[in-house]
Amino acid sequence: MPPSLAGKVALVTGANGGLGTSVTRALLDAGAHVIGVSRKIDQSEFANPAFVAMSADITNAEMAKRVVTEIVARHGKIDILAHLVGGFAGGSRVDEIDDTVFSQMFELNVNAAFVVLREILPVMRKAGGGCIVAIGSRAAEDPGPRVGAYSASKAAVVSLLKTVARENKDLGITANTLLPGTMDTPANRRAMPKADFSTWVRTDSVADLIVWLASEAGRDVTGAAIPVYGKGL
Length: 233
What we know:
Layout lengths: L8 E5 L6 H10 L3 E6 L12 E5 L5 H15 L4 E4 L15 H29 L2 E6 L12 H20 L5 E8 L5 H6 L11 H12 L10 E4 L5
Parallel strand pairs: 1-2, 1-4, 2-3, 4-5, 5-6, 6-7
């Protein structure tokens, strides 16, 4: 029997992206009420009465606060956070990375996670439970050349989530990071048209793992950085 998230309220950031679409659908299929946040998102993108679209730049601290406040006002709680927002930049050695690119990677990958966590953790702590899953990257633990800023920012996300797990381990709050390899998304196919797509990580696989972590079956998994490398191992 698939996991049931009936009655749960989930916040998905980056809800209509290449991965976000799969995660949003999987959570809805599991019975959760899903609030999908993205800079541009429309209610019609997910034909499900349990879905609510919210347009917001979640990297902005004030917008992150507004999003969480509105969800709690409407639903009374947030049980699940699937934080999928992030960015990628590469192509330069560490000594060639300019300040703008380095700052951008930390803004999109670390600061965005931080401002959402800062708002959502008090809600979960008050409720006495919750599940947080963030998307890191294989590069966080297995960095390659010419992706130094990206790898460092994703490693920081892993550290941040492990800290959250330890600070809230006695409150029923789990916090984990997934470390996917290259994911099979339309954007990645366009960027690497000659690659072997069959070795890439399917977004549905990541989505199913998030649902499992958010279910009763995943209650004992916290503080983990879980590799999801696909056939490209």
